[in-house]
Design brief:
The chain is mainly alpha-helical. It has helices at 16-19, 22-43, 47-80, 86-96, 100-106, 109-151, 160-174, 178-190, 194-214, 216-236, 240-260, 262-283, 287-301, 311-323.
């Protein structure tokens, strides 16, 4: 095999594809003719016309330099791209012989535009097909999620836990969304599978945080709930530092949400206060904080005494206060 020649802007004129080019030869011929005219005009004393011809020669020489630069850029492009179509292969073959016009003719704009239109249409069709596939996968994921939740209720089945996990994981394989990840983490946490639940909560939390950046009103409640559950899990694992931080962030997030919609989110503030009150009672004993959290929870819940679903929160706050040696008065 012969050595492969490489060129730069300085030696491009020595390349076969340059000196065999008809455009190059035409420029060289015009330059030579102009030089002969200048020599004749100078010899015959026609100075003014010689100066004008000199300016024209300079313009031709600049044109030649631009031509060589453009050819070099074309050469560089050919060396960088993959020659993977018949048109490109033929165009490259013509280019190597200095047949630039023939190379251009091979690259027929109308033919290439029609091919491009077909590809764009195919791409659009594939996008539609992919969107339909994603919708179908989400539907199947929802079906497996329901199946997992159903099996969680089959207490008389000896393989209830294993089957529920299998269906949760299949749901995630179909469509890994934060809602399903969170549901699976809760299921595992309720069955004391803390090591398996922890990374799921972390994954759901990261996704909810990203979603909340674009739509805080919709997703900050999910951020707060995931933080609360993760903190509870970490506390059960004696990982008190991260648990404390996540509880505090969950509480702060619920407080901010309650400022805009107190009826909807004050109960969640009370719930998190209760969790922190228990945390400061048992995990990281701090009587002042525990009593303060439980007392604030009770104060919030005074406005919700008629809501049956919140009676458990009231009872929990009272029990925490009693455990701290603080008497509580049960109004009504």
């Amino acid at each position: 095999m012969g050595d492969i020649k490489t060129y730069n802007i300085g030696n491009i004129e020595k390349a076969q594809f340059v000196y065999q080019s008809l455009d190059y030869q035409a420029l060289i011929k015009r330059i030579e003719e102009k030089q002969e005219i200048i020599e004749y005009l100078q010899a015959t004393g026609k100075t003014e016309r010689a100066l004008k011809a000199g300016a024209e020669l300079e313009a031709l020489e600049q044109e030649l330099e631009q031509f060589k630069e453009n050819v070099f850029r074309l050469y560089e492009t050919f060396t960088k791209i993959e020659i993977n179509t018949e048109r490109l292969a033929q165009a490259k073959s013509h280019f190597d012989q200095g047949e630039f016009r023939e190379a251009d003719a091979i690259l027929n704009a109308e033919d290439m535009a029609r091919d491009l239109d077909r590809l764009i249409e195919r791409d659009r069709q594939l996008d539609q097909e992919k969107a339909e596939i994603e919708r179908n996968k989400t539907q199947i994921a929802n079906e497996f999620l329901i199946k997992a939740r159903l099996w969680a209720t089959f207490y008389n089945e000896p393989n209830r836990f294993e089957k529920a996990c299998e269906y949760f994981e299949t749901a995630l394989r179909a469509a890994s969304n934060p809602e399903t990840i969170f549901e699976y983490a809760v299921f595992l946490q309720n069955h004391n599978c803390f090591d398996q639940a922890n990374p799921l909560y972390e994954e759901a939390l990261q996704t909810y945080r990203e979603l909340a950046q674009e739509n805080p009103r919709a997703y900050l409640p999910y951020v707060a709930m995931t933080l609360n559950n993760l903190a509870l899990l970490q506390s059960d694992q004696n990982d008190y530092g991260p648990a404390q931080g996540n509880y505090e962030e969950a509480l702060q997030t619920y407080r901010e949400l309650a400022q805009e919609n107190p009826r909807a989110y004050l109960p969640y503030v009370a719930m998190t206060l209760n969790n922190l009150a228990i945390f400061y009672l048992q995990a990281m004993p701090n009587k002042e904080k525990s009593v303060g959290m439980a007392t604030e929870a009770l104060e919030i819940l005074q406005a919700f005494q008629q809501v049956l679903s919140l009676q458990g929160y009231i009872q929990t706050a009272s029990q925490v206060l009693e455990a701290n040696g603080v008497d509580t008065l049960q109004d009504q």
